[in-house]
Amino acid sequence: MRLLKYSFFLLFLAACNTPQAVYDYDQQVNFSNYSTYALFPEFQSGLSQLDESRLIQSLNNKMQAKGFSKADDAGIYVNVYTERFEQDNRSRVGVGIGGGGGNVGVGVSGGIPVGQMDTYLKLTFDFIDVEKDALVWQAVVESPFNINAAPEQRQERFDKIVEKALAGYPPKK
Fold first, then answer.
1. Fewer CB within 10 Å, N side or C side of the chain?
2. Sheet containing strand 118-129, strands side by side
3. For residue range 114-160, what is the model confidence (pLDDT) as tens digits?
4. Nearest to 48 by CA among 39, 58, 56, 40
5. Could you confirm whether domain 19-87+117-173 is CATH 3.30.160.670?
6. Pairing state of beta strands 20-25 and 134-144?
7. What residue ranges do the domains of the chain occupy?
């Protein structure tokens, strides 16, 4: 029974820490026609230079695993841009004062936040048809991100984010 409790707790923690993705695509496109890719010419992710190189490394590895090859005369451009935001998931300590007499009661309370806000990254992956100059596929991934993490942990996080993004490619029609 104790093992079952710990298993559920670990599953809950893992579920809260995984990237969440949303996909969209052009239904008229035949995605089997694409086999080569290149980074968008004006690629600027909005990340630091070190994090951007980690993201590009993860992206190149996962694209090759999907059967794509990097080429100058690519079929699609890949563009990624990011947005960093904070979400308030902090615990609070409640403080209250109250009093009353007879059948009347009055109370005032407030919560004091404890800890830091959680930092998240929202990465948007765009696949652009080079010939048509049109967006054909998009994934938006939100993931918790520790800005104080070690370089190895950052690389692992980008690997997970890119894997989650490319899990929806090619789309199932």
1. N
2. 20-25, 134-144, 118-129, 76-87, 36-39, 69-70
3. 656 678 899 999 999 999 999 999 999 999 988 889 999 999 999 99
4. 56
5. yes
6. antiparallel
7. 19-87+117-173
